[in-house]
């Protein structure tokens, strides 16, 4: 049975990841967060783990993520 949950589209290496909060599906501007994620934005994985962050994803994680 397939998972009915829609995959979250995440760019591999966005040009300016610091402009967006990556904490939820809304992808709010860093200075206009609407989700109540807190006072600081969530960083993109490339900011935390480097440009090759997606190479370490497991098959289970790839079920929920679409890399663009």
Features:
little secondary structure, 68 residues, 2 helices, DUF3079, 9% strand
List the helices and strands and how they pair.
Layout: E1 8-10, H1 45-49, H2 59-62, E2 65-67
Parallel strand pairs: 1-2
Shape: globular
Helix content: 10-25%
Topology as a string of helices (H) and strands (E):
EHHE
What does the main sheet amount to?
A: 2 strands, parallel
**Count of folded domains:** 1
Distance between termini? 25 Å
Instruction: Name the beta content range.
Output: 5-15%
Strand order of the largest sheet: 1-2
Low-pLDDT runs of 5+ residues are none
Q: What integer value in Å does the Rg equal?
A: 13 Å
**Helical segment tally?**
2
Rounded mean pLDDT score = 87
Structural class: little secondary structure
Tally of strands: 2
Protein name: DUF3079 domain-containing protein
InterPro entries: DUF3079
What features would you describe in this structure?
The two termini are 25 Å apart. The chain has one domain (1-67). The chain has helices at 45-49, 59-62; strands spanning 8-10, 65-67. By secondary structure, it is mostly loops. The protein has a two-stranded parallel sheet. The mean pLDDT is 87.
């Amino acid at each position: 049975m397939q998972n009915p949950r829609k995959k979250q589209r995440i760019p591999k290496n966005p040009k300016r990841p610091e402009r967006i909060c990556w904490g939820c599906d809304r992808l709010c501007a860093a200075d206009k967060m609407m989700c109540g994620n807190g006072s600081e934005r969530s960083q993109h994985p490339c900011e935390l783990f480097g440009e090759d962050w997606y190479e370490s994803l497991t098959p289970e994680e790839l079920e929920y993520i679409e890399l663009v």
